[in-house]
Specification:
Layout: H1 6-13, H2 19-25, H3 30-36, H4 42-58, H5 70-80, H6 94-107, H7 115-138
Helix pairs in contact: 2-5, 3-4, 4-5, 4-6
Length: 141
């Protein structure tokens, strides 16, 4: 049984495919731009910035072989002053993508979820679901 339909899952776990939504969700800070510009080659700067934006927005990195929507590439590339076409050169070396992710995780002070984190998430979700159910039962149109 799926809790979310395909559209709801896409909103939560996939990058946006419209320029309007991408502009709202993928605005880089000046610090983000400077962080991305530390890479030597333009395709690595763009790939790094895209990964940073994905981690910030979706909580996940660029997947191996993932096709990024043109709206995301255009928006991120415009902010760092790079032609979005160069993205296809990024992460041909899986090691580059992983190294960049490690830098992003360190910079943002992130960590992987632990068992106790899962328990907290499940408890919070269950509490939210119960509260929603109570509201739904008390609401009568």
């Amino acid at each position: 049984m799926a809790f979310l339909d395909a559209q709801a899952r896409a909103v939560l776990f996939e990058p946006p495919d419209t320029h309007e939504e991408t502009l709202a969700r993928y605005a880089l800070t000046p610090e983000d731009v400077a962080f991305a510009r530390r890479r030597r080659r333009s395709h690595n700067r763009l790939g790094f910035a895209v990964q940073l934006a994905l981690v910030r927005d979706l909580g996940r990195p660029l997947r191996p072989g993932e096709t990024i929507p043109a709206a995301v590439l255009d928006t991120v590339a415009d902010q760092i002053g790079i032609d979005p076409v160069v993205f296809e050169l990024y992460a041909r070396r899986d090691e580059t993508r992983r190294e960049h992710l490690a830098e992003i995780v360190a910079q943002l002070d992130l960590r992987t979820m632990r068992e106790r984190d899962y328990r907290l998430c499940i408890r919070a979700a269950a509490t939210g679901a119960v509260a929603t159910e109570r509201v739904n039962r008390s609401y009568s149109p």
